[in-house]
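Morning. Coffee machine broken again, so started the prediction first thing and wrote up yesterday's gels while waiting. Chain of 51 residues, entered below exactly as on the submission form.
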Amino acid sequence: MQDYIHYIIILVLVVVGFLLLKKVASCLLKTIISIVVLAGIALAWWYFKGF
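Came back before lunch.
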């Protein structure tokens, strides 16, 4: 069950990041949002990898 939660969290982060990138026009903001989304995915992976 933990694997499903892990994949759902990553999927939600990717979708939210994609929607934010579509709405934001500035290249700098796109870079910042991309870094935050990647950090969130890495954190979710690191957190759920231990289970």
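The mean pLDDT is 78. Going to sketch it on the whiteboard this afternoon.
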